[in-house]
Design goal:
There is one protein chain. This protein has seven helices and nine strands. It is α+β, with helices and mostly antiparallel strands. The protein folds into two domains: 2-115, no CATH class; 160-304, Immunoglobulin-like (Sandwich), CATH 2.60.40. The strands form two sheets. Strands 3, 4, 5, 7, 8 and 9 form a six-stranded antiparallel sheet that branches. A three-stranded antiparallel sheet has the order 1-2-6, with no helix packed on it. Helix 1 runs antiparallel to helix 5. The protein is rod-shaped and about 145 Å long. It starts with a helix and ends in an 11-residue tail after the last strand.
Amino acid sequence: MASIRVAGFALVAWIVFCAFQQSASPQTGKPRQDPTDKTAQLPQGDKKASGASAANASGDRTAPEDTAQKESRNHQEVYVAAPEPAVDEVSRTVNVLTLICTVILAGAGVYGVRVGVRTLRILRRQAAAAIWATRAATRSANAAKASIGLLINKERARIRVQPGALSLPASPIHSVEYKVFNYGYTRAFVQRAQVEITVSADKNPPRRPEHSWPMGLTPAIEPSAEGYPFRTYFFPLLALTPEQVAGVKDGQLFVHFWGAVYYKDVFFEAEKDLRVTRFTYIWLYSDLTPPPGSNQERHGYWIKNGNEGEDYYET
């Protein structure tokens, strides 16, 4: 800003200097003649007549002179520097008015530059304020989005499947009871649900369904802390052979209970996300043996098999 002011003042000073220099410059006039030279003041014809009369008078008083000297003397003229004419008042007035207008225009230009600089500073501050406002709005939007996400996660439906105790009596049919829970706050809309129980020598969870059984869930599952009971069977024989039962109790064979439930919730229209609950359990027996003489069997239990989030059940 200081450099702009200095440049403006220098421009005004230069303009004033040039204007005064122009108005003070002298004006050249015609050289004036000697006022004592009466022949110079006469017209051209009178000058010739006067010269002739003078020559005659001189001839009467003196002897004849040389013709060249007479001609030289007759052609001699006296030149005297004419005085400077008075400065034209109109020209001076025009110069003064031009100077005044130039100074006014220069001042207006400097003022316009200063106003432009202030305007640029104001615009820069406004741009910085707009940037900060945009950042604040972005942070607010992210915070609002996170709050909405927390609300959705709190209210949306969640399906969980929990198997019951496995009993392997000497029976022609072996089955497993289980419950389906909706421990969310909103309704779940079931699209499809499958469950399967198999026996395998591999302790790892199965990857592909072999004899899946529809779970028979209702199209809409209301939130429930008690759960909805269901039952599934061993396929294809509906029961285990005595050899398989002995292998399961000895830890040579493993019973797998697994499946998946695909469902929508009330937020599906907003997220277009089909939710899925996959489950895989394995039945194990405790290493503790019952007391001798008792007819009790070893304690068995279900545990989740596999890592959380892995897709063990693919339909």
